[in-house]
């Protein structure tokens, strides 16, 4: 599916935490620039620990994790070692702010060598071209007397995308850059009436964060989940 460039709604260019981000939205996402004006970053997931078995599932090629958020934070901090006030504030903002999380890798083997291709620059990828998980959260203020509290501000769960990279840095401190267009629609089998529908567009140049650090922050909910402090991926890591 090809998307036209979005020209409606608000536009914001942000430079936060070493990132440059232009945001566009239309339909129910005309407020996209405001919703996602926090911190954005990327990291590469080389493996996932299977908690049921204790075995590590290695990812070849690595999964690229993209985070576009309405949370103002420093993704290079290990939040386990920050003050309780800062940890709690960051965790609360992460939970209630808008957030687009994308996990993506290629599932093609165009050269026939038996190995999945790495993501590449200059290719327009769609849902058909990539193994991808796309999760969208919108900032919500739940009305306690609503028939279905918060339903009218949730996003539709039928998500399709077009993604093109202009830079794919791998090391901590490098950048991932490109454009991401997301079409958000209501899934009639899953979503209530009144969910947000529309398009989101991100033109981004965002910093790459170290894998263990990014995973540890998310696993511990930015340092407020004490039970996970010494589990993988935090195990053995220090500030």
Describe this entry's structure for a reader:
By secondary structure, the protein is mainly beta. Helices cover 11% and strands 37% of the residues. The chain has a six-stranded antiparallel β-sheet. The radius of gyration is 18 Å and the shape is globular. The N and C termini lie far apart (44 Å).
Topology summary:
Blueprint: E1 11-14, E2 20-27, H1 32-35, E3 40-50, E4 55-69, H2 84-96, E5 99-106, E6 125-126, E7 130-137, E8 158-168, E9 175-185, E10 198-207, H3 211-219
Antiparallel strand pairs: 1-2, 2-10, 3-4, 4-5, 5-7, 6-8, 8-9, 9-10
Order of helices and strands: EEHEEHEEEEEEH
- N→C terminal distance: 44 Å
Low-confidence stretches: 1-17
Which overall shape is indicated by the principal axes computed on the Cα atoms? globular
- Work out the helicity level: 10-25%
């Amino acid at each position: 599916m090809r998307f036209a460039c979005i020209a409606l709604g608000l536009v914001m260019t942000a430079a936060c935490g070493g990132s440059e981000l232009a945001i566009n939205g239309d339909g129910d996402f005309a407020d996209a620039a405001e919703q996602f004006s926090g911190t954005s970053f990327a990291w590469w997931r080389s493996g996932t620990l299977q908690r049921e078995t204790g075995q590590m599932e290695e990812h070849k090629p690595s999964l690229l994790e993209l985070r576009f958020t309405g949370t103002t934070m420093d993704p290079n901090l290990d939040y386990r070692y920050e003050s309780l006030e800062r940890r709690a504030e960051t965790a609360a903002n992460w939970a209630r702010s808008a957030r687009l999380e994308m996990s993506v890798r290629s599932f093609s083997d165009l050269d026939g060598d038996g190995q999945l291709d790495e993501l590449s620059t200059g290719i327009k990828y769609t849902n058909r071209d990539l193994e991808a998980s796309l999760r969208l959260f919108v900032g919500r203020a739940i009305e306690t007397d609503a028939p279905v509290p918060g339903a009218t501000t949730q996003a539709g769960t039928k998500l399709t995308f077009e993604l093109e990279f202009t830079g794919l840095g791998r090391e901590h401190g490098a950048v991932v850059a490109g454009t991401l267009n997301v079409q958000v629609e209501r899934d009639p089998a899953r979503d209530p009436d009144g969910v947000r529908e529309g398009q989101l567009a991100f033109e981004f140049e965002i910093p790459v964060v170290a894998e263990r650090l990014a995973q540890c922050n998310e696993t511990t909910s930015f340092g407020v989940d004490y039970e996970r402090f010494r589990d993988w991926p935090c195990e053995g890591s220090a500030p």
